[in-house]
Amino acid sequence: GACCSYRLRDALHPLWQSPLAIPGGTRQSPINIQWRDSVYDPFLKPLKIAYDPTTCLHIWNNGYSFLVEFDDSTDRSIIVGGPLKNQYRLKQFHFHWGAINDWGSEHTVDCKFYPAELHLVHWNAVEYPSFEEAVMEGNGLAVIGVFLKLGARHKGLQTLVDALPAVRHKDTVIEFDDFDPSCLIPSCPDYWTYAGSLTTPPLTESVTWIIKKKPIEVDEDQLEAFRTLLFTSDGEEERRMVDNFRPLQPLMNRTVRSSFR
Ligand SMILES: NS(=O)(=O)c1c(F)c(F)c(S(=O)(=O)CCO)c(N[C@H]2CCc3ccccc32)c1F
Ligand SMILES: [Zn+2]
């Protein structure tokens, strides 16, 4: 493949004990985004993001990542436009990161890893009655991916970082309200988009991926705070929550489109 042997890495990767490949999987994620192979699509619209901070509910460590969940019972926090035909409701956001700064993101750009990647998971509440049903449909989910790179301290992220000690162990949760995750999304409108899948079980091929071209900057202490989380519950032998990313998957018969020249 472009920059690594998917099959072997996937099969050997300790964390995602996923089958070697989803039987018949043709649109698995994550992938390497080869910048020069992406195709500019002038018909792609700007992505519109409208989040209501009062829909923010809690932060919890579910043993895969730490995630912030939102009240998705109404259309108060939505995205629309971009490659999407409907509007999609925000369900949760979470991150993937490495043990060291050399890797951690799920997607790569020209085979380059970022130290971490943010995913904002949305579902098509126009066509499906619940998130769980949308997870099973080809146009059910839309995930915005934002790369994190080492640089200046990120003010908006710090409110999240300050809450992490309270969710250090798996299956711990704390109330978290009045947070607007659009502060974590770069203002530059440029993105890539492709048809893919969840990168954790059930790995269903239901995701329209929208990957922002520009990363956000976070500092070393903020990345280190992610690495103080644990995969394990209180009382178990501690295992640090790091390298919670799935290996790259083959592009197969897909084109990555760009919203920019
Ligand atoms: N990288 S990703 O965007 O594919 C992705 C994750 F990487 C990830 F870790 C999670 S999770 O909720 O922490 C773990 C359960 O799958 C989800 N959660 C989604 C997937 C399935 C599911 C079911 C109920 C609630 C949330 C989710 C996810 F969509
Ligand atoms: Zn993710």
Describe the 3D structure.
The chain is mainly β and 261 residues long. Strands 2, 3, 4, 5, 6, 7, 9, 10, 11, 12, 13, 14 and 15 form a 13-stranded mixed sheet that branches. A two-stranded parallel ribbon has the order 1-8. The longest helix has 9 residues, at 155-163. Helices cover 10% and strands 28% of the residues. It has four helices and 15 strands. The model has no long low-confidence stretch (mean pLDDT 94). Zinc ion binds at residues 94, 96, 119, 199.
Quick overview:
The protein has 261 residues and is mainly beta. It has 4 helices and 15 strands. It is globular, with a radius of gyration of 17 Å.
Would you identify the regions where 5 or more consecutive residues have pLDDT less than 50?
none
Biggest pleated-sheet summary: 13 strands, mixed
Rg from C-alpha positions?
17 Å
Termini separation: 26 Å
Round the mean pLDDT to the nearest integer and report it.
Answer: 94
Strand element count? 15
Structural class: mainly beta
Give the names of the bound compounds: the ligand NS(=O)(=O)c1c(F)c(F)c(S(=O)(=O)CCO)c(N[C@H]2CCc3ccccc32)c1F, zinc ion
Task: Compute the number of helices.
Answer: 4
Helix content: 10-25%
Write the H/E string, N to C: HEEEEEEEEEHEHEEEEHE
| Share in β-strands | 25-35%
Shape: globular
